[in-house]
Amino acid sequence: MWQDTRTDKICNELAKDGGQNRFRPKVGLPLATYFSGPKIKWMLDNVEGLRDAAEKGDAIFGNIDTWEIWWLTGGPDGGAHVTDVSNASRTMLMNLETLDWDDEILGIMGIPRKMLPKVVPSSDPNFYGMTPKDGPFEDAIPVCGDLGDQQAALVGQTCFDVGEAKNTYGTGCFMLLNTGTKPIPSESGLLTTLGYKIGDNPAVYCLEGSIAITGALVQWLRDNLNFFDFSQHVEEYAKRVEDSGGIYFVPAFSGLFAPYWKSDARGVIVGLTRYINKNHIARAALEATAYQTREVLDAMNKDSGVNLKALKVDGGMVYNELLMQFQADILGVPVVRPVVAETTALGAAYAAGLAVGFWNNLNDLRANWQIAKTWEPAMDAGKRAELYKGWLKAVERTFNWVE
């Protein structure tokens, strides 16, 4: 999975010639364990017989979207071996300009091109394929919408205009900013990624801030420390105290992603005194998500020059009232939750619906988006600056922990 760090040595070796940003001009991504290109290389190098099979065309690759489409359209009996531009852009193998696999990078990583899926639009009126008549549905239906997790949430949030952004709160946290039809290189540690491509229309690009551990930190408190039985109980404990008691919890369990990209970082809790109890730690864990989001938003402002007026939010953690209010406070802008908060599934449905003509255009989708709740910032600007300064100090304590 994306949090697996076993490709760390591969990334370090690749970085010896050109540094961590060696491939960034082409693919928009730094060398990091997050992405699947080095994972393919690891498997080819370590799984006996796999490289020979791949070179013969007997072993093929796909992210989870490719695997699902393959089976939905017939599997070994003629299934479509495809991936859309948004998923392809996260492999570290797709050229952002050509929207196709980059032969130079494939050569450097030793990945046979024939094992890779065809890159297709996110919403394809020509369809990727049809489900078999004797398949999971009563009749053959077209499979024609495919989006990466976060890009699907962007579409589900109808962020179709340049400067619109959304943040998804799940196991990790992912903020995407629509930057239009030209990729914008990041100078602030963000990813340049494909947002979506609707049919023959030009591809739309995004800046993305990827945070490794957010909801996963609550799971860690639940499973590793047995703080509570259910993740939603974290809010109950956090509400028992007025603040975090001066502590900060930086969850760099698998290194730091945006905007640092430091694989040698590890998690810390700083500022501990005898006054601190379980409730303070629970609150600090929630606040960590909001602080990390603030770091990403600051980086987006630097790269794009866009000052966000409001943040659209989605994902499982957006029902945590304390977190959403603190998020608005630490950002200093309103936080807006839509009626349908599971926007990833919604975005994929939108892509398919556009392909078959269920919706006529993007304006139909905009009209379908509705606000459920807005949190307004209520924190004094001076306190906001003081708290954030402490967070940045805490983050520095995580650096260079792994030799």
Biggest sheet features: 7 strands, mixed
Order of strands in the sheet with the most strands? Answer: 9-10-8-7-13-14-15
Q: How many distinct helices?
A: 15
What are the secondary-structure elements, in order, as H or E? HHHHHEHEEHEEEHEEEEHHEEHEHEHHEH
| DSSP strand content | 5-15%
Mean pLDDT: 95
The helix content, as a percent range, equals: 25-40%
User: How many strand segments?
Assistant: 15
Low-confidence stretches: none
General shape: globular
- Give the structural class: alpha+beta
Distance between the termini: 24 Å
Radius of gyration: 22 Å
Describe this structure in words.
The protein is an alpha+beta fold and 403 residues long. Helix content is 37%, strand content 15%. It has helices at 8-15, 24-27, 36-46, 50-56, 64-72, 85-88, 103-109, 149-156, 215-223, 233-238, 278-304, 321-331, 343-356, 362-368, 381-396; strands spanning 82-84, 94-95, 100-101, 118-120, 129-130, 142-143, 165-169, 173-180, 191-196, 204-211, 248-250, 268-270, 311-314, 335-338, 371-375. It has a seven-stranded mixed β-sheet. It has a two-stranded parallel sheet with strand order 1-4. Strands 2-3 form a two-stranded antiparallel sheet. Strand 7 and strand 8 (173-180) form a beta hairpin. Helix 8 packs across helix 13, helix 9 (215-223) runs antiparallel to helix 11 and helix 11 crosses helix 12. It is globular, with a radius of gyration of 22 Å. The mean pLDDT is 95.
Overview in brief:
Helix content is 37%, strand content 15%. It has 403 residues and is α+β, with helices and mostly antiparallel strands.
